[in-house]
Amino acid sequence: MYQFQQSSSAQTKQYAEGSFQRVGVKLQGRLMLSNREEFDCLVDEMSPGDAVVQCDVAPRNGERIIAYLDHVGRIEGTVARITEGSFVLQLTAPERKREKLAAQLTWIANKHELGLPEDRRHDRLQPRRTRTTLALEDGSIQPCRLLDLSLSGAAVDVESRPPLGTAILLGSIRGRVVRHFQEGVAIEFNRIQTRESLAEFL
What we know:
Thrombin, subunit H, mainly beta, single chain
């Protein structure tokens, strides 16, 4: 089982230098640039000291960023390095926040299937209508079969699996692909749904 080391003063410096070991995650969120513009983002890797962030807009080196991530909450920091399609965010946080973040990341790292039906934050629902469509950002529409459904996401059987992080429409509900599996993809909805908003499937 993965486990971060406990924090100490020396380790706090290690966090600040961004040398603490990152873990692979797929955390969706929304970030705000220093000019207060907001964009969707996806964090691929994270440690208590930094995070690798994917976003459609590239910030400036040294720019201050605030982000809100699923399962983690608010983080903030400065852009330390920019690469093609992503950037490294050096986190700014007191020791107590870093310790909490280390515990959160330990929990996430030890979950075998983040965002999957068996690891949902909400109970499964029994869909009555399983035939639906998956619409992609490029306008293409794929028929798919609903395998699993909850207020926070779904699993669908689809022939062509969109890349991780792809924004989609499942029927009329917006979400993002968070995992691939043999039959298709797992989707996390952009917001928690109600039974009424899922009526098209129930």
